[in-house]
Design goal:
mainly beta, four-stranded antiparallel sheet, two-stranded antiparallel sheet, 0% helix, 35% strand
């Protein structure tokens, strides 16, 4: 089967998205392997929007933002 979620032992990047690794921070994936939800490990820009380290993100299967809390 496909991997749907995991806990990374250390910070990593998936499709150029810096995600936090921790036994307390789950990384969820879509069936196509793209990030579905995670916590950011670094400040970054995603689709023209700035996000800060530690912020949770949710993305659609095509990589676009699914949830945009407090612009």
């Amino acid at each position: 089967g496909n991997l749907h979620a995991f806990f990374a032992p250390e910070d990593t990047a998936i499709d150029h998205i810096p995600v936090r690794g921790s036994v307390f921070k789950i990384i969820e994936l879509h069936k196509n392997g793209r990030v579905k939800s995670a916590t950011l490990s670094k400040d970054c820009w995603i689709h023209g929007r700035r996000f800060t380290r530690g912020e949770p993100i949710k993305l659609d299967a095509d990589g676009s933002l699914a949830l945009t809390p407090n612009p």
